[in-house]
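Researcher: Here's a chain I'd like modeled. Treat it as a single chain, no partners, no ligands.
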Amino acid sequence: MSQENLAPNETMQIHEMLNFKTICMTTSKMMEGVVFDQELKALLEKDVQQSITSIAELQNLLKKASKLR
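Model: Modeled as a single isolated chain. Structure tokens:
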């Protein structure tokens, strides 16, 4: 039975993407509170929802990372 693992550089790159996506989501969520334009507010909310999905997918990918001992 073979188990797929991520290489260390892949793990690092996924961590970087996860950090970036988290910062983007946080920024969009904070901007929702100060934006008055309803269209822009809707776009920010859509970005937050898509970011949540992306973050969950990246976290699932990290489960394939081999554990350091």
